[in-house]
Design a protein that fits this description.
Layout (H helix, E strand, L loop, with lengths): L8 E5 L6 H12 L2 E3 L7 H8 L6 H20 L4 E4 L5 H8 L5 E7 L2 H10 L10 H7 L9 E5 L4 H12 L33
Parallel strand pairs: 1-3, 1-4, 2-3, 4-5
Helix pairs in contact: 1-7, 3-4
Length: about 200
């Protein structure tokens, strides 16, 4: 196993509704790394477009992805590891996130469309409507063998998914002694990146 002390940035990726925020916050709790919600980097025009039920184009996504990359570069320069959510649906998006940043790895949360569709139908306070899910799956290019990271199924309970992620990515355990992996704290986590409320979209 590689040294646990090296700087690492884990991008938790996948379609909307797959559980990126939940798992990313769990990783942050487990490792003590900084957490950032990728949707907070969307320009207002993107949020409005998705809220109206229109899928984003590549032209919409480039500024968003560059903003995430710039944030990661700043954290890396300070020697801080982090975990950030980002749909990162296409290989070219992931290549942009990794450009000049060998510290970046991906955790692709994989799920069947019916499971994700059910989750989207029952969640509130998000700008991504269930009607856009087919476009997300149509755009999705799964993580490839030559890309650093792991693909993890989201089948089962959250603690089981998180345990698979921890094992697949060989994450360092820096939890408090009394914090079990199957009982992450609710609410804000230490080191969270400030984010606008109710802008979890992609």
């Amino acid at each position: 196993m590689e040294s646990e002390e090296r700087v690492r940035h884990i991008v938790v990726m996948g379609v909307s509704g797959v559980g990126k925020s939940t798992i990313a916050k769990g990783i942050s709790t487990f490792t003590g790394w900084t957490f950032a919600e990728g949707d907070a980097f969307h320009p207002e025009a993107n949020v409005a477009k998705m809220h109206e039920g229109h899928p984003l184009t590549d032209e919409d996504r480039w500024p968003w992805l560059r903003a995430i990359g710039e944030w990661m570069s700043a954290e890396i320069a300070e020697g801080r590891s982090a975990v950030i959510t980002c749909s990162a649906l296409r290989r070219v998006y992931r290549d942009l996130l990794r450009e000049g940043r060998p510290e970046v790895e991906f955790c692709h949360l994989d799920a069947q469309a019916d499971l994700v569709g059910d989750r989207l139908t029952h969640r509130d306070g998000h700008f991504m409507p269930p009607s856009l899910l087919p476009s997300q799956f149509a755009t999705l290019e799964p993580l490839e063998d030559d890309e650093p990271g792991a693909t993890v199924s989201v089948e089962g309970a959250v603690p089981d998914v998180l345990a698979r992620v921890v094992s697949s990515l060989h994450l360092p355990d820096r939890r408090a002694d009394d914090l079990p992996i199957d009982d992450p704290p609710a609410g804000d986590l230490p080191g969270d990146h400030p984010q606008p409320p109710d802008q979890r979209t992609e």
